[in-house]
Design a protein that fits this description.
Blueprint lengths: L2 H14 L6 E4 L9 E3 L2 E2 L2 E5 L12 E5 L7 E7 L2 E5 L11 E2 L4 E2 L6 E2 L5 E3 L8 E2 L1 E4 L2 E5 L3
The chain binds FE2/S2 (inorganic) cluster (FES).
Length: about 150
């Protein structure tokens, strides 16, 4: 069994046993090139227990988060030892989906690049990626979503 299939299987078994684990949607196959998870939302917040996301174990790691009832997915990236950012994957130039590179995001359509915090590094985009406020407390990351 491939590692990603084994992980999905273990998550399904955990769910059946009453354990709540994050659900992987895709592993590197989505437009951002990141592993995508589905996150429940409560009161406009997505809450991640970070030790359940191995992709975020090191600085520069990132995941894509699909949030039901939210208009788009969100990229969550570890930007420092205890620093995280949550940004939109939608390029502010003409709306293509950015891809994660080791230390920045790049738009495949016209080459705009963004820092891991979403700031424009190189155009043609002129505006930063949309950012979502985050709170990091006790190894738990809370992402505040806008309506
Ligand atoms: S749509 Fe991203 S650079 Fe044009």
């Amino acid at each position: 069994m491939a590692p990603s299939n084994r992980r999905i299987f273990l998550q399904q078994v955990g769910a059946l046993a009453g354990t709540i684990l994050p659900v992987i949607i895709t592993s590197g196959g989505c437009a951002t090139g990141l592993t995508a998870y589905r996150s429940p939302v409560s009161e406009g917040k997505a809450v991640l227990k970070l030790d359940e996301y191995p992709e975020l174990a090191s600085v520069g790691g990132a995941i894509e988060l699909e949030v039901p009832s939210h208009h788009e997915s969100i990229i969550v990236v570890r930007t420092g030892e205890e620093m995280y950012a949550a940004v939109s994957p939608t390029c502010t130039h003409l709306g293509c989906t950015v891809r994660k590179e080791p230390s920045f995001f790049r738009c495949p359509c016209h080459g705009s690049t963004y820092s891991l915090e979403g700031s424009v590094v190189r155009g043609p985009a002129e505006k930063a990626l949309e950012r979502y406020p985050v709170q990091f407390i006790n190894n738990q990351l809370t992402i505040l979503l806008r309506p």
